[in-house]
Amino acid sequence: MHCDDHTYARLASAKLALIRSQEILPEELIALVERVLPLLRQARAEAQVSLPPVEACATAEAMFAGSPLLLRQDFPFDLKQALGLIPTLLDILEQSGEAAAEAAQTLRQAMESGALDPEAALRGLAAGDDALFAHWRERLPGSPRALDFLATCALLPSLNVAAEQLAPRLPENLPHEHGHCPLCGSLPYISLLRDKEGKRYGVCSFCGYEHRLRRIACAYCDEADQNKLKLFRVAEYPGVRVDVCDTCNMYIKTLDHREMDNDTLAALDDMASVALDVLAQQQGYRRPTLSAWGF
Ligand SMILES: [Zn+2]
Ligand SMILES: [Zn+2]
Description:
By secondary structure, the protein is an alpha+beta fold. It has two domains: 5-169, no CATH class; 188-282, no CATH class. It has helices spanning 5-22, 27-46, 60-64, 79-94, 98-113, 118-127, 131-139, 146-166, 266-272, 274-282; strands at residues 188-194, 199-204, 210-213, 229-233, 240-245, 251-256. The chain is globular. One zinc ion (ZN) binds next to loops.
């Protein structure tokens, strides 16, 4: 996502057109993402984060032993911006079909009456505390992930900026035999192959940081025995493969940058390859993370 605005807009609209043409995901969902993208792009350019002092971060020694730089609950984000994005995100949600509109109205009322504290939701998501979200999933059966979506999108821009600013604090030559993000410890939601040699990267499901992964190892349980790892491809989805692990029964999709003309936008490519999620899940494999959008 380092391209200029024009390139980004062109790329995003091509990918959205592709997702629409597949007729797998509901139009409401595609339109929702389409409306949210420019908002998040703008917010990313404006996010203000203050980084914790170096002493509050893990030591190089701890990081070499596998600790992330920061724990999720200590990861910086722009609270003011995130709170400010919520009303706009609610408006967008409200325009995204009946169920989403109903959920948006319920959430808005709950925030106005004090029954739902948006700051608590943001902090809960950051800390990986699911209780509040589980409660609202139950209360919004027509659109159960509405609050997840709201909090995820509100935090995403400043988490991305924080990750970018924290990355230089990672020690050089940090080994990458673990699949988790070295900045925040979260799991990747998708992986990428890039450069001529096809170096593999995981895209963090929390902060968005792209971190090195071992080429042949499970991103989730670190299994490296090739007999336990399989991958499959489907001709209709060039440049995407599914890596499955028979040790933990998880799968991750891998986007081959080199086969996609270096035009990956992971969060949209994830949506564009949802048919492969269906296939992997039909074979009994699970995906431990949500999409970049919180659903
Ligand atoms: Zn991360
Ligand atoms: Zn595994």
